[in-house]
From TrEMBL:
The lineage of its organism: Eukaryota, Metazoa, Chordata, Craniata, Vertebrata. Pfam families: Trypsin. InterPro entries: Peptidase_S1_PA (IPR009003), Peptidase_S1_PA_chymotrypsin (IPR043504), Peptidase_S1A (IPR001314), Trypsin_dom (IPR001254), TRYPSIN_HIS (IPR018114). The keyword Disulfide bond applies. GO terms for molecular function: serine-type endopeptidase activity. It comes from the Eukaryota. It comes from Loxodonta africana (African elephant). This is Peptidase S1 domain-containing protein. PANTHER family: CORIN, ISOFORM B, TRANSMEMBRANE PROTEASE SERINE. Residues 13-243 form the Peptidase S1 domain. GO terms for biological process: proteolysis. Keywords: Disulfide bond, Hydrolase, Protease, Signal.
């Protein structure tokens, strides 16, 4: 189901700005023993999309919860929902022991269906052939760090970022951060906005003809130093058929 819920805003995650309630209704928090570990997005009433690296082999699925319909962890309300995970499906090409690996994307099947509302809505996935031009305006959201060396935040953050050419991204990041057709890069180098620790698994979304498409899943990048660098995202369109 397409969603046109988000409206024009400004802000960033690293050094960021709070997201108003309901602006990003597909955003979820993956929680382990009551603590936020990663982000994710609602695909439909039964499935959530996230990053495979959020789930090391030692993690116990029974101790995980998916929290949705919430912006501030300290302000739970009737709008929020929580459910358990039935199964975790990483992409077959993902390799747990490799830092730089393809397939850093995963599906979570939920134990109970999501109740859709104005605050809990699915995001749209682009087709396999979809391409977004460099410098296109997009948004990244998450509960990760907003300042270097600070703890993750309680309130969802939002950042306006721009798609960056993969060749430039490789030069900017340097080795060992190769990029190719399974990934894409984005950041806002002018306003020093980027994804950071705790944002992994969350969405990079772009509005295309009135519909919000999830182009990327927060995957990796440099440590969140004061000097901002592009973040690397798993390219969702490459995995659309698998999804």
């Amino acid at each position: 189901t397409a969603c046109s819920c988000a409206t024009e805003t400004q802000g960033k995650i690293l050094g960021g700005q709070d997201a108003p309630p309901g602006r990003w209704p597909w955003q979820v928090s993956l929680q382990y023993n009551g603590h936020h570990i990663c982000g994710g997005t609602i695909l439909d009433q039964h499935w959530v999309l996230t990053a495979a690296h959020c789930f090391p082999r030692s993690i116990r699925i029974n101790d995980l919860r998916v929290l949705m319909g919430i912006t501030n962890f300290k302000k739970r309300s009737w709008k929020s929902q929580k459910t358990r995970i039935k199964q975790f499906l990483p992409h077959p090409t993902y390799k747990h022991r490799q830092v730089l690996t393809d397939g850093d994307i995963a599906l979570l099947q939920l134990r109970t269906p999501v109740r859709l509302s104005a605050f809990v809505r699915p995001v749209s996935v682009p087709p396999t052939t979809f391409q977004m031009q460099p410098q296109a305006e997009c948004w990244v959201t998450g509960w990760g760090q907003v300042h270097y060396k600070e703890a993750p935040v309680m309130t969802l953050q939002e950042a306006q970022v721009f798609i960056i050419n993969n060749t430039y991204c490789e030069l900017y990041l340097g080795l060992p951060h190769p990029t190719h057709n399974t990934t894409l890069c984005a950041a806002n180098l002018r306003d020093r906005a980027m994804a950071c620790m705790g944002d992994s698994g969350g969405p990079l979304v772009c509005e295309v003809n009135g519909t919000w498409l999830q182009l990327g899943v927060v995957s990796r990048g440099r440590v969140c130093l004061p000097t901002v660098a592009p973040s690397v995202y798993t390219r969702v369109s490459y995995y659309s058929a698998w999804i």
